[in-house]
Each structure stands twice: as C-alpha cells, then as structure tokens.
Amino acid sequence: MKCMATVDDVRRQFRNPPPEARPMMRWWWFGPSIEPAELDRELHAMAAAGLGGVEVAFVYPMGPVTAPFGSPELLELVRHAARTAQSLGLRFDVTLGSGWSYGGGHIGPEHAARRLHWDRREIGGRAYDVPIVPGWPGDEFIAAYVGDGTSYVEVPFNDGAIHVPAGGQPREVLIATSRLTGQNVKRAAAGAEGPTLDHYSAAAAEEHIRCVAEPLVRAATPELLGSVFCDSLEAYDADWTPAIFEEFARRRGYELRPRLYELLSDTPLRVDFRRTLSELYEDNFVKVFQRWAAGHGVPFRIQSYGEPPATMSSYRFADLFEGEGWGWKGIPETRWASSAAGIYGRSVVSAEVWTWVHSPSFRATPLDLQGEAHEHFLSGVNQLIGHGWPYSPSDRPGLGWIFYAAGALDDRNPWWPVAADLFASLHRISWLLQQGTPVRPVKIYVPPLGDLNLYRAVRRSIPESVPRTIREAGLDFDLVDDDAITVLDPTEIALIVVPEGAGATLPPETSRWLDAVRAAGGTVVTDAATLAEKLPPAPITPPPDVGLAHRRLDDGDVYFIANTGASVQTLTLPQPMEQWTTHAAEPTTSQYATLHPYEAAVLFPTAAQDRELAPRADPLTSAPVPGPWFVDFGNGPRPVDLPHRWENEQEAYSGSAAYTTDLHLHDRTARLFLDFGPGEPVAPGTESYLPPNSYRALITPPIGVAAEIWLNDVRCGSIWAPPFRVDITAAAKPGINALRIVVHNTAANALSADQHLIDTAAAVTNEFGHRFDLQHIEHAADYVNSGLLAVPSVIRQA
C-alpha cells in the first residue's frame, strides 16, 4: 500500500501529475504481420498523445503473416518494441499468449481444459453389462451410478464395461465422463492455434510458461517490462481436472466419488465442488504464474473473473488487479477487481476500458471516451488500459486494419489533434484516485455459490437495487467474500448487506464474523427493501446521475464527482469546497457545484475559517458571432451558413475543416468566452443496434465532434465535451480578431465506405479460417453528425 499523501501534496501536483498514471493502450498485433518502422511510428504517436504505455496483444491475421507466433522473428520484434518504448518513456506490457484464454499447439490432451459430461439412461429391473466406448478422442470414463432419481450407488467398472445389478424399477443409470472442452484459443494469431489449457493443473501452467511465456519475457527483457498480463477467464464449461477426486478429499475432508451425482442438483456439494475448483485455479494457475513472473522481477496482472470460478479474493495471489465493464450503479467486473484491491491493499487497480465503446470501430467520440472513463473511475478504477490501438501498416488502402470489436483509438481518427487534451484530463483523475485510500463504508457480502462462472452468479444473487441504492445515496461499497472477512476487522464495518437466502449457506466462521459486526455496533442488512433507511449518512448527497468517489488523504479528504447523465446537475455541498473542473483553468471555491453533462470535478474541503466566495456575476452580454463565415476543407475557403452539417454535402468525408470569420471586440475590460451552446440530448435506445455494454454519451454536441479554437493564431483550447466553451480572453484584442475554428469528426464516414476492409476480412477468413466478424460495420454512418452545428456566441463576463 502506497503511503498516504497530504491535501497540499495532491493539490500541488494535480495540474501536472507524475507520468505513471497516464492511460495506456492495448496494442493489437495482427498476424503477426509487423514491421519495425511501423512499430516505431506508432509508439512515437502514442507518446506524443500523452499515453503512458502499451500492452501488446497478439491476435488473428489481417494480412500475410511475416512473423508467426513464437518464431524468432516475432521475438526479435517484441525486443525491438520494448526498447523503443523505453526510449520514449513508455511502459511496455506483454500478454502471455495469443488471443484468450492461454493455450495453443503446445497443449496436448493431458494439459487441455476438461469438462464433466453426464449420460443419463432410464432402465428396467434386469441386470446390464454396458461397454464403455470413448465417444471422442480424449474421453475418459469417471464413474457410473444407478438409482431411483433421488438416491444412487456407484456401480462396478471393469473389463471396459459397467456392471449394473438387477433391481427394482423404474430406475436410471448416470455415467460420468471427463471430456476435453474442445475449446481452442479465441482470436488466435497464426502459429498460436490450439486448445485452451487446464487452469486447475500446475503442469499445464508450467508447460505454457516453458513454451510461450518464458520466450516472450526473455525477448522483451524483464527489466523493460511493466507487467505480464492474463486476460479474462473464458475457459467455457471447464469444470474438471484429472486430480479432482484426490484434491477434493484433501481440501474438503470427505470423498467426492460416492456423491458425484449430487452435482446434477442444487445441493451443498455443489458449493464444495466449486470451492475446490476455485482453490485449484488459485494454487495451480494464479500462484504459478505469479511466482514465475516474480522470479523475473515482473508483476503479474490479471483479469480474474469468469470460468474457471475465480472468487473475488482469488485476485490476492496476483500482483496487479484488473477489471472491465462500466456501470457505476451496478456490479461490473470492474467492481470485482476494485473491491479486491481495496480489501487486499493494492493502491492501483486497472480496467480494460472502451471495450465496446459506441460500436463500431471509429464511431466513438472523445466525449464517449471521457464519459465511459468516468464510469470506471466511479467504480473504483484508477488506471486505464484502453481497448485499444490496432497496429496497421501506414501504406494499407482505406482505413487499414482494425480489431473486430471495440474502438480503434489511434491517430487515424480525425479528432486525434485533441487526444492529448483528453488523455491529460484522464491522467489527472487517474493519478488523483491513486492517492490515499478509498472510503467505502458499505460492504456487500458475496455468498457461497456453486456456479462455474461465479462473477455472473453473484450478479444474479444480489438485487440490482442494492448497489444502486448505495451509490445514489452518495456512498460507496466493496464486495466481500468468505476469504475477505479473514482480513477485515469486524469492528470497522459500518454496514454490510447479506443477500436474501444467503443465511442458509453461511460458513460458521462467517456467521461468527457477522455476529462480531453487530456486537461492535455495525449494521447487518438482510432485507434489501430496508437498506436505504439503514445507510450511514453520506458526506455529500448527489443527484441521481452524479457519482462520487471519496479518498482519504493523510490530513483530509478529496472527492471525485462526475455527472453521468445528459442534463446539468447542481450539488449543494455541506461546506465551501475548492473545485477543480476539466474546463476551468483555475479552481474556484463555493458551497455549490454545477456539473454540465458528462462533466467531472475534484473537490477539496476548505479550512473552517475559509469563507465562501460570492457567486460569479451573470454574463454582461451574450451575442452570436455574426459572420460572415467561411469553411475550408483544404481546397480553399468558401462562404458557408451555420449550422453546417458535412453529411448534407459529402456523406463519406472523414477529416477536418476550418471555419473562419472576423470577430469584432470593443475592449478588454471583460473576460471573454466563445460558447457553442449545450448540444441536444439523445433519447436512450436511439441506436437500437448497440448492445447494452456499448457505451455512448446521450448528447449530440454542437460541434461534430471536436474542435480547436484559434484567435489571432493563438490556440485558446479544444472542446469535445460540455460545457462547449473556451476562454479567449488572453488572445483577444480590441478591434478585429481573426477567429478560426478547426472542426474534426470521426472516421466513421470513411469506415462506412471502406470496401478494402470488407475485402481484407473476407480474404483472411478464406485463408486462415473464421476467427472474427467485424462488429456492426453496417451501422458505421448511422446518426453521424459532423461539422459546426451551432452558431457560437461571445460571452462577456465580469
């Protein structure tokens, strides 16, 4: 745990924080088909945009393969990229494999993921001798049982057959077989194809380390690595491993084999079985990779959720915790990771962010990226790993290469000139939220469950109203499970929610711990309907769409607040607070905080003797800029009337245009702003093709989608999010001023007309097999609005 910082330390460094908290990017290497010169160009572009580093991910081909996965040629390119990144001050991380989950051609049947398969047959009363013949290579007979549907006994197996004795009827036979799941590595690079490994087997983990991880780390050079990475667990249906009978008996204290059939119904055995799988995953996967990485002096970073059944506390055996998914009033995977970080003392917790942002690729705007990032911050994250940056040769026709899903967040976006401003804002918030410790007075208990995907089961077992009630009250929470309570002092728990029905499966140790919470004056809530009335008071009570993250510093507190909705919100604060916003050059002090749509602020409580500053005076005047206006798309200026939407003239244009006019100013006695208006709200569900996890900001900006404001050839600032307002005072002069507004849109229009990309996807599918589908590509130009969509006004303010 990092040492706490003082309020003065944080205030002083907030404007220009240290570089460690800069957003990073997942860097997709397709093929692999990589050239050193393009690696260098893209790394320089990332550094220039203010990004902090990369996480290399090796994925499916998008063209001729020049360096197959694992080849000496690829390893040399990894080494080259790591050294270039170091020279630019960028962090360099590597995924320990291709696609996901770990696996490949080096994984044979003895190390591959397995599942338990049941064959159920109704039989009569006579005796049966049934030969057991493997239905598929790798099938292994486990056991057979005969019974009446409620009670079963194991039947003998020898000479390749089960021997069912005669008995009463009706009855049924259950035959258990261990089968390979058949799952291969998803989105694999060429040369990385093969089965997913057995996450419950240390031998399988060690084989993957020997064949894949060790060569990658040695190529990158351990001293140059920020971390090695494991993506989310997606080994579907993998609920078996050859050593399970022995391990179950050792860990649970009774034999599994005689009762294996109980897994077919909802019995306590299912919880014990799932718990054994969780422990095997921890001992034989997470710990194995962490120890190996530590031997090289490199942290092991993981998204520890999914299948196999990782518990929230399984994170504790890794070095760096990561989540994904937005939704600050719910329980996304991000909360799974941030809870573990808070409980187990990790000061930094990352998230894979922008995974499905405003699909398809190139559709996302800087406002979309900002809005989703704020959702992650509110869920406890303080390090962003963007998803992501697609490697693409500069000489490719059309837009080049993109990942099948997620935003293409690179310098092919026309709005990239404002990227440095966007990433600088997110960098400041990330750094701020790494200071001190999180204040989360409410805990939500995760009950013992028997599901293979434990994270999803937890979301089903906890009513959606529980996290929503806590967050809308201005409070925050951590998830806690039966392992977490061993490190939590019950006397420090203000309130814990125990989901309805969890009492029947509570372990004795957890029951005693909850009794200790009550004895110390804490509250245990078992009825979600009464939660709101039992919550402790919040330091700040926000409106419903405003989220709050509270950090405790060495000598005070700091708050991050964000408006996650499309309407202006005003908070009444309990005392005057110093306020930093993304659009203001200097902080203000007030007992009120007004946030524009998707705007965020940082609040520092002021000393008791500080008085509230008087409210800022109303604008003296507000007048539209009359023009005449001219627009230049690079082929010379021409007159234009505002509003001006590019798609009305040229549907497939992605790029920039400069709008110019003369601005007449009479004096410099007032503070001057150029204001573009609030934008227009968008009804939820307007883009009906978007899946629920695809984030988009519900507002149509007055500029589509970002702009740089120049006055007398002085760059006054950039805008991409509300309030769409720029201070032009420093550049203004009495008389005639040259105003230039350079508007940048997205690459969505170009994507909609890019037949090269469609042809490329078809060609590589024909050559390498079906490894991906381009996501929502047919909707690329839906609801796109580019250009200067409002007449700006000059605001004069005292």
From TrEMBL:
Single annotated GO MF: hydrolase activity
Signal peptide start and end residues: none
Gene3D superfamilies found in the cross-reference section: Galactose-binding domain-like (2.60.120.260)
Keywords, sorted A to Z: Hydrolase
PANTHER family xref list: DNA-BINDING PROTEIN (PUTATIVE SECRETED PROTEIN)-RELATED (PTHR36848), SECRETED PROTEIN (PTHR36848:SF2)
Protein's UniProt name: Glycosyl hydrolase
Biological source species: Kribbella hippodromi
Taxonomic placement: Bacteria, Bacillati, Actinomycetota, Actinomycetes, Propionibacteriales
